[in-house]
Amino acid sequence: MRRPLIAGNWKMNGTKSSAEALLSGVVSGATSVSKAEIAVCVPFPLLCLGEQLLAGSNVQLGAQNVCTESGGAYTGEVSAAMLVDFGCRYVICGHSERREYYGETDEIIAKKVSASIAAGMTPILCVGETLQQREDGLAEQVIGSQIKGVLSRIGIDAFDRLEIAYEPVWAIGTGKTASPEQAQDAHVFIRSQVADESAAIAEKIRILYGGSMKAANARELLSQADIDGGLIGGASLVADDFLVICQAGDLAAG
Ligand code: 13P
């Protein structure tokens, strides 16, 4: 049994005061969540606040991006060691918004995943197809090449130290959600790609679903055999909604 992980991706949202209220709300509600693991991936400027407010709670801190390099003359970048210094346990790598708007390739993403693991964090590697790709029957080809594009560069052993998030681009922020069957099928496919290299790691690895997971659909999605958690965008910005998803994670844990 894989322990469900419910991770919030706040994206580029939040001020010091809104973050304080949201983090405090999540921390107090999370005391009733015992089986699912909970994390919030906040914007860089809010990491310090996150570290303070999450201390001693059962909510872990994460970041949304990391530099490929370990330090030095890289203006505007943030290293994995810096994230660890601020208490980050998780870091999202290769989110579709970074692939699309910032030109992140599998090569760059593989370096980010490696740098994060080397620093002691757990990367959440995101993969997923666009609507056009799905309609063209290319979803598996795209997802497969995103997985293999990282796997071939960093090796299967690194997959023992990361999580994968399946995030169909057409379901992100659109209110459209993959049906539980569509999501389950994609997760089975992703697991099979890992199993090509190691059945044992494929069995262990957590595959989260992301793309308009919300309070109303979390239970059904999380009840699928190969959906091991969620990466939550919009609904993670409302403490009560996020906590309902965390509770659904608890239920899914049995
Ligand atoms: P939404 O939950 O807002 O669709 O965002 C999903 C996502 O991109 C999480 O990383």
Automatic annotation (TrEMBL):
Annotated active site: 95 (electrophile), 167 (proton acceptor)
InterPro entries, per the entry: Aldolase_TIM, TIM_sf, TrioseP_Isoase_bac/euk, Triosephosphate_isomerase, Triosephosphate_isomerase_AS
Record has Isomerase as a keyword: yes
Top enzyme class: isomerase
Gene Ontology cellular component annotations, sorted alphabetically: cytosol
Catalytic activity, EC: 5.3.1.1
List of residues binding substrate: 9-11, 173, 212, 233-234
Keywords: Cytoplasm, Gluconeogenesis, Glycolysis, Isomerase
Places the protein is found: Cytoplasm
Single annotated GO MF: triose-phosphate isomerase activity
Pathway: Carbohydrate biosynthesis; gluconeogenesis; Carbohydrate metabolism; erythritol degradation; Carbohydrate degradation; glycolysis; D-glyceraldehyde 3-phosphate from glycerone phosphate: step 1/1
One example of a Gene Ontology biological process annotation: glycerol catabolic process
Subunit structure: Homodimer.
Task of the protein: Involved in the gluconeogenesis. Catalyzes stereospecifically the conversion of dihydroxyacetone phosphate (DHAP) to D-glyceraldehyde-3-phosphate (G3P).
HAMAP family the record matches: TIM_B (MF_00147_B)
Family: Belongs to the triosephosphate isomerase family.
Protein name (record): Triosephosphate isomerase
